[in-house]
């Protein structure tokens, strides 16, 4: 779904005070019933990440960590079954998953008498049963499953969604009988930059030539689009010519301004594909964006 | 020199003799006149003549390229003053001064330094320094000044400052030249366009490097001139100018143009035989005269000439009209050449009232030529996709296995992205005021270079750089940036053709438009500027070396490339079909070679570039030093090889591009010869002419005929079909390679619109015409355009060999298709025709010839209809996959080729076949 910038800003403004919890997501959805849940969630997630980046350093100061840890210890002792860590995270306005990481990190320092390795930390976050302390394990678990922006669960979901859309894209291409090379084939051939799809025979979408397609299972906002342009899209253009980016969860309409330069944005698989064969032009598939 | 000229003017020497002498390479360098002791060097004579012409017509020439103004002769006073002070002993070698003076005088006198007692030391010094253009308006006038009677002797008739005050000359009516007295303002300050002019239209020819015989010649000249002068003075005093005197023609002679005087014949011959270095410069000069805004109309001719005669100052040519008269003849003699200019120029020329009044015949010929002319200035000849592509990544050359290390591979990955980032930024900002290439991009580019060096990736980058250069700049004109036009979508809808036209219109409307003359300086238009600035900023010797190697190799390969189709396909009698292919291939090769050569020249001579011409001492040292090193390109070898193989039409234009980048020191010798088709020749003449006007090219090259040897070589080896004899150059290619030809149009247009310098430029008249109705709807056309784009895009990311294969196969299949059509369709139609004929003849009172006509027309119609059906029938295809796509493109191309040939020729074919059949039937019937 393409959002005019004004509309996008309204959503962003409204998400400013939201926490990354299910309840908040429900509120957001009720406030903007015309927008799809995925789009809203993606916008919020991006905004929340920005917010976190601004504030995270505050929580990484040693004295702050120490005070969080001490509070967890004392309250955890008092109420062993209560979700004290989740409440603490909400109270200090930090992502629960990140709070869990900070506390676990601090805990492991005491346990091992030094900085714990990243792999150990990550594996324990992924699998809290590995944590020697039962109460802490419960708290960590509560934090990760109640965070819709950070944490191993969210990472996993995001990755799966990404994969899903790539598969979806490939299926659509096969359906249209368009031959292509995918990322893995490209890597095997030694390409230095690999979009998701390179079309062996270019197509035209809305009158623009398309050589490659990149699938993004997220919302295209200013920040992420700028980063992608610099790190990926222009690099693809530099090697393969003009191409198409699909932001499956929509994007800010105004960002689609590089069409003349050879980067076309879409929020769904394009319906008006023109190929070199006149005959194939007509069999357009009915396609619902969301 | 002057002696010879004088002899010519007085018919003492046969014009043809002199022309033959000038033309003939084998003959003796010196021409001995009937008078003993008078010898003239060939190489000096033409410059002398040209200077003389300039000099004489300077009074009429009131507006130059930079000042199409009513205020006449503004440049002149300053220039003359400079020349004057120069002569007074100021030692300043005055490069600028003499240059601005030399629109009037193109060449400095070719006379050599001589032990001349009359000449003071400073004068000699100045001459030797090679800047002696300006002095007193040229050698001729200087001499005349020295020998004329005292009353007029102090006058430099070209010097306005020196003009006698009003009324001092008893018979000179002041009113005849009122405008000449308008306050002479300095030239340089107010003329923004004057730079190219001072550089090119008016490069004074320097003193020849090898001074010929010396003093006697000069002395002799002087004597002759003195005599001539007195003779003139006598004639002047006689009330009736003798009609026999070539120099003072009667009014009737002027009006009707019935008399062609020997001097004219001579000048004309020089032009016609290509004895001048740049025919276009001379033509431009003529057109300037034609458009000069003289205050006199033709009705004033009589008075004008009388005044001039009476003033006793002018020697030979009398009035502006007279110059026009002369130059009209020049135009006539060059009409074959002029006829190849673009339509618009021809129209303007034909509509010029002076041309009309002098010679209606000329006007008619121009009008005729107009109909044949196809070129319009700034035309995009070839179809170039409006989209600018990047250089495709090809695993075969670009993947990890082509790099020495992982580090090198990943560094280059970044380099590529930075390169395009810089390019995009340049596209976006370079037109903005105050934007500076080095300041904005310099550090990034230099950082990139140092990284390249540490990774040793220069060869990879050089390849990327060159490919991108070719991709962006090979076309005749690529619009500067894709973001420029806000309504690209709309333009895209109109299709490539209309798009080009709209672009042109846009250009015409927004371009500041000055007349810069027919010899603009070498330039880097469009994206070329980016690549030049990049190289300058990068200033990386490793990169330059890699580029040089690669450019050299590519150029020599291109020079050898086969343009002609394989002989098999020529021999089939389908010559019409193949010519077009050759044409395209040649155009493409030529444009590419010119681009590469320019950059090779740029890189090769970059280390030696100086903004000022170095002093003689520095020059000599440098010459001594550099004569030891091997030049990057052996120009002479390439050239002689090309002459031998008759491929100069391809080689010379690119060599010219290469040489146009020369620094001041490098000297080369150029030659040319060979029988060629006219437009081919024209291209050569114009590019060469341009080259000869560039200041770094030593002027004497043209006049020292060093190419005899080369010519001999050519005679000895004429085997094999060369390119030179095939009409490969179209009018459009000519204009693409020589954009300066468009200057003629500008000049004439300026005259027509009666523009003034005060308004700051030329007022353009654009006549709105209603849009043509197209048979195909807009949507359909944009679809077609998209299909073409897709096809281009498809080939873009495939190896080039695929495209070549497809083209080759399509060519063969197409030709087979044509044969098939001939065998089936045409013979079927002719059969049908025979039946109709026989039926018709059986009818009472039938008229065979009428019947013939009607049947023939019917058959042709039927043929065209069948064609249309065949075209539709043939375009059914396709599935995906690379192979299928190629196959389909091949099919399409083949169909297209066959159909286009057939549709162009089917009528003629049917007519021919039908004619034979008709004759046979009629014969059989008795």
UniProtKB/TrEMBL annotation, chain A:
This protein's UniProt keywords: Cytoplasm, Nucleus
Localization in the cell: Cytoplasm; Nucleus
GO terms under cellular component: cytoplasm; nucleus
InterPro entries: CDIN1 (IPR029404)
Any single GO BP term: erythrocyte differentiation
PANTHER family in the record: CDAN1-INTERACTING NUCLEASE 1, SIMILAR TO CDNA SEQUENCE BC052040
Protein's recorded name: CDAN1-interacting nuclease 1
Originating organism: Lates calcarifer (Barramundi)
Phylogenetic placement of the source organism: Eukaryota, Metazoa, Chordata, Craniata, Vertebrata
TrEMBL record, chain B:
InterPro entries (UniProt xref): Codanin-1, Codanin-1_C
Domain Codanin-1 C-terminal residues, every copy: 724-838
Pfam family, one: Codanin-1_C
Residue ranges with Low complexity bias: 164-177
Start-end of Polar residues biased regions: 143-159
GO cellular component terms listed in the entry, alphabetical order: nucleus
Top-level taxon of the source organism: Eukaryota
Stretches that traverse the bilayer: none
GO biological process: chromatin organization
Region (Disordered): 59-255
Record's protein name: Codanin 1
Source organism (scientific name): Lates calcarifer (Barramundi)
